[in-house]
Specification:
With 128 residues, the chain is of the alpha/beta class. It is built from three helices and five strands; from the N terminus they run ββαβαβαβ. A five-stranded mixed beta sheet has the order 1-3-2-4-5, with helices on one face.
């Protein structure tokens, strides 16, 4: 396996794993890190094929969660944007004892095009 790079920034006692989405590398998080690096320890990860890890071939989500499991500290908060949120969710389902919390930003459990039937009338369902 090729070397999987990430960077750790911050002086806090709580670990936050930052997982970018498609089209962005870990630099997208610097506005958060700049404000909160004294409170949290941030682990910036460029997903395979993106940013510093652009030389790594794409991986399946379970392969990425396995790498995270083998290298991350226990009880971390996972903050994922887009597909990064899917990775965070999969990690939490696979290793709940390792997760302090999950924050999803613009994440969807489905990345495929589907025909939607929004105009159907449904009883007793509240859409927010």
């Amino acid at each position: 396996m090729q070397q999987f790079y990430w960077k750790t920034i911050g002086n806090g006692n709580v670990n936050i794993v930052l997982l970018n989405g498609w089209g962005f590398n870990s630099e997208i998080w610097f506005f958060i890190i700049k404000k909160l690096n004294n409170i949290f320890k941030f682990h910036l990860i460029d997903l395979p094929g993106i940013g510093v890890n652009r030389h790594i071939d794409p991986m399946k989500i379970n392969e990425i969660t396995s790498i995270l499991y083998n290298n991350m500290k226990k009880k971390s908060i996972f903050l994922g944007w887009s597909i990064g949120g899917l990775i965070a969710n999969q990690f939490a389902m696979s290793y709940p004892e390792r997760v302090l919390g999950i924050i999803n930003v613009a994440s969807s459990p489905c990345f495929t095009k589907k025909k939607m039937a929004w105009n159907r009338k449904r009883k007793n369902i509240l859409f927010l």
